[in-house]
Amino acid sequence: MDGYLEDIHIYRQSGDQAVQKNLGRTWLETSEFATGNVSLTLRKVQPADEGTYSCLVKSRDWSSSAATMLSIAGTGEASIEILVPQGQGLELICRSHGWFPKPTVQWVAESGKSLSPDTAMHQDSNQLFSVLSRVTVTGEEVGEVTCQILNPLVQTEEKSTVLLSSE
Known about the structure:
The protein is rod-shaped, with a radius of gyration of 24 Å. It has strands at residues 9-14, 17-22, 26-28, 40-42, 51-58, 63-70, 79-86, 89-99, 104-109, 118-123, 129-138, 143-151, 156-164. The protein has 2 domains: 9-70, no CATH class; 79-164, Immunoglobulins (Immunoglobulin-like, Sandwich), CATH 2.60.40.10. With 167 residues, it is mainly β. The strands form 5 sheets. The chain has a 4-stranded antiparallel sheet, with no helix packed on it. A 3-stranded antiparallel sheet has the order 9-12-13, with no helix packed on it. Strands 1-2 form a two-stranded antiparallel sheet. A hairpin with a 4-residue loop joins strand 12 (143-151) and strand 13. 0% of the residues lie in helices and 56% in strands.
């Protein structure tokens, strides 16, 4: 919300007439008002929706307000591709899309050997991150090799594993 206030849903009732203004992604269940429930539903949440949301309810005799912070987190599925051997080993490529905020990537080998990936991340027009991470493994690297992608906000991890044999 970048420090400014923006009305995303307004409900007014004058007699039997109700007027609503919204972004097309918000919904108020007006039948719940009598029980004190003034919950706002936000559909198709995007990273740009992150921020503080305030609710103000006014009547002739009283008013009340509340605020809450909305944090957005997104994850994607990871997949590994194995490229034809080049020179001294196999090139493994890990791909994923749909991450928010920017994730961390690491490669883990069963042998405990440290793998040094070349990782690139790009953000699309919806602010979601895509990951492309490459690592080369040599002939002596056998067993499971795993690409792990972690969302630092919610500590959610996606991973993909390949099994390499010396044959």
